[in-house]
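The protein record quoted in full:
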Amino acid sequence: MTAVNDFYTLSVKAEYKSRPLVFGGGLSGYYEFTKLEFHWGSDETQGSEHTIESVQYPLELHMVHSQVGLTSEEALSQPQGLAVLAILFELSTTDNPVLDHILRAIDNINTAPDHMAQVFHPYALASLLPDDVRRYYRYDGSLTTGVFNEAVVWTVFAQPLHVSRAQVYRSWL
């Protein structure tokens, strides 16, 4: 996995022989994994792009998938060309061990001239999902960065995961 930090989004891309798929649960087809994007704010009371019952979270993860059979450009121009799974993170007193592997790369990213680093010993993508994947909010919308194409079917999981205060602060460095 390779991580890139633009100081708003930490993107993590991985090379797979066969990409993980997401399907079912009301999605209109099969979608293959393209990247992870982590979004955080300037302090621990904000950062998530979604809210649940007016609560904003310090960190939000987007697992981005493109519809199987479409190129990246085609997916961006199709309604529901992309399926994004959004996972919210609430503050905890303990580190999230799955996140720790990814966040450790930030130390290297911030000193690298291209703001890129390798993520060593990453966990399986499924370990970044909440235990209860049956409770979620679903809507058609747009990308939240870049070109803002209206090509996304969003799935926002109701159950947040945990992140420690130290991990949130680490992402700001």
